[in-house]
Amino acid sequence: MTKVIELKSAPSLPKIFARAVATSRSHDDKGGLPDLQVVRRGVEVDPGALADYNHVCGFGLRDELPATYLHNLVFPLQITLFADKSYPYPLMGSVHLDNTLTVHRPIRLGEPLDLSTWTTNARPHKSGVQVDVVSQAHVGDELVWEGLATYLYRGQKIDGDVPPHPDETESPDGAGMVWRLAGDLGRRFAAVSGDVNPIHMRSITAKAMGFPSTIAHGMWSQAAMLASVENRLPDAYVATMSFRKPVLIPGTVRHVARQTGETWDLALRNNRKGTLLVRGEVSPIS
Predict the structure, then answer these.
(1) pLDDT value of residue 23
(2) Which ranges of 100-195 does DSSP label H, i.e. alpha helix?
(3) Mean pLDDT over residues 69-94, rounded?
(4) Residue 185, Cα to own-chain centre: how many angstroms?
(5) Domain locations in the chain as residue ranges
(6) Which of 58, 143, 152, 223 has the fewest CB atoms within 10 Å of its CB?
(7) What is the pTM of this model?
C-alpha cells in the first residue's frame, strides 16, 4: 500500500536538506525505491514570489505560470521524499541529468493547485544509479502539468546492465544570445527556488563535492532557455532538457535556438569553446 505524506504548508527547505543529509548516512539497504508519495493540496502562488522568479530567469511578467515554476512548486515535495528514511539514496552529491516538463494547458495565477510527486525506475548508470522522479499538478480533477526529473546518484550500485546511450540528432550551433553569468547567480536562483544545494552556493562547497567551481542550477538553465522563446510557445507542449556538463559560474555561455516546423531545438554552450552544456527540445502537443 502506498504511503502518502501530505504537506499542509510549504516546508522549510534548509531544514529538509539538513534532514536529508542526516538520514542518507544511515541508508545501507539498496533494496529498491519506497512506495511513497508526497502531496500538497490547494497551493496558491504568491504573485510577488512569481515576479521575483521571473526576474531571475528572464520570463516576462504575466498571470501565466512558466512550466519551470511548477517544478519550483513541487521541488519541496521531492526533497521531502528524499529526506524520508525509506529513501535509499543520498541527496548530497546527486546530479540532475534530465528534465521533461509537460504543459497540458496554460496555468493561470490564482488557480489552486494540487501537487504530488513519487519516484520510479531505479536503474544502473555508468557512474552510479539513476532514478526518475514523477510530479503532477492538478486543478480540480484536471491534470494540467507533469514533470519527469532524472537524478543520478554517483557511486551507488544497483543490479542490472547499464542501458546503451540513445542515438541523438545534432544540437544547434552558431550565432545565438551571449549570456554573462555572474558569480552570485546560484545564490540568486536559490533565493527564488529554495534549492540551497551547496554546489550552487559557494565555490568552496562545490569543490568539496567534486566540481571545479560553483555551478548554476540546471533548473535555472532550463528556465532561461524557455524564457527566450516563451512568446512563441504553443498553449500545450513538452519541453525536454538534458544537462550534459556543469554550467560554471561566473562564466559566459551562448544560447542557440532553432525552429523546425513547430519544434524548437535549443542548446546552451560554452561561448569560447563551443562545448555543449545543455541540450533542449520543445514540441507541441497536438
Answers:
(1) 64
(2) 185-193
(3) 90
(4) 16
(5) 3-158+172-284
(6) 143
(7) 0.90
- Of 184, 180, 186, 127, give the one whose Cα is nearest residue 151: 127
For residue 253, report the phi and psi dihedrals to the nearest 5 degrees.
Answer: -125, 165
Task: Kindly indicate the confidence band of residue 31, based on its pLDDT and cuts at 50, 70 and 90.
Answer: low
Is a pLDDT exceeding 80 seen at residue 74? yes
Q: Please report where in the chains the cell 497536438 appears, as a residue.
A: 286
Provide the 10 A C-beta neighbour count for residue 168.
8
For residue 232, give the nearest of 72, 26, 60 by alpha carbon: 60
Contacts (Cβ under 8 Å, ≥6 apart) of 233: 226, 264, 282
CA distance 273 to 244: 15
- Calculated CA dihedral for residues 45, 49, 54, 57, nearest 10 degrees: -120
Q: Are 200 and 256 in contact (CB under 8 A)?
A: no
Residue recorded with cell 532514478? 131
The radius of gyration computed from the CA coordinates of the chain, to the nearest angstrom, equals 18
Q: Measuring CA to CA, how many Å separate 49 from each of 137, 182, 186?
A: 18, 21, 17
pLDDT given at position 232: 92
DSSP-derived 3-state class of residue 50: helix
Cβ contact 279:267 at 8 Å: yes
CATH topology of domain 3-158+172-284: Thiol Ester Dehydrase; Chain A (3.10.129)
How long a stretch of residues is the chain? 286
Whole-number percent of the chain with pLDDT over 90: 69
Q: Distances from the Cα of 27 to the Cαs of 18, 24, 35, 165, 251, in angstroms?
A: 15, 5, 16, 29, 37
Edge to edge, the sheet with strand 36-43 lists 3-7, 36-43, 113-125, 128-139, 142-154, 95-103, 237-243, 276-284, 263-270, 251-260, 177-181
